[in-house]
Design brief:
The chain has 2 helices and 3 strands, in the order E-H-E-E-H. It is of the alpha+beta class and 58 residues long. Strands 1-3-2 form a 3-stranded antiparallel sheet, covered by helices on one side. A hairpin with a 4-residue loop joins strand 2 and strand 3. Helix 1 crosses helix 2. 14% of the residues are buried.
């Protein structure tokens, strides 16, 4: 499971980046990531593409 460090501030683009804190929090709520620290997340390696894209949508 890769550990991802979230950026400090959300970019607010129409398709958020993979390191956006909003995206990582949505993946955590969907059950595909665990919060390790304030900005560190342990993301599952096999997150389905539909779920990852839905988390990145605005």
């Amino acid at each position: 499971m890769p550990v991802v460090t979230a950026k400090k501030k959300c970019c607010k683009d129409s398709l958020r980046c993979k390191k956006c804190p909003v995206t990582l929090e949505r993946l955590r709520k969907a059950g595909h990531a665990q919060r390790m620290s304030k900005r560190g997340y342990d993301v599952d390696a096999d997150v389905p593409g539909k779920i990852r894209k839905a988390a990145r949508r605005r």
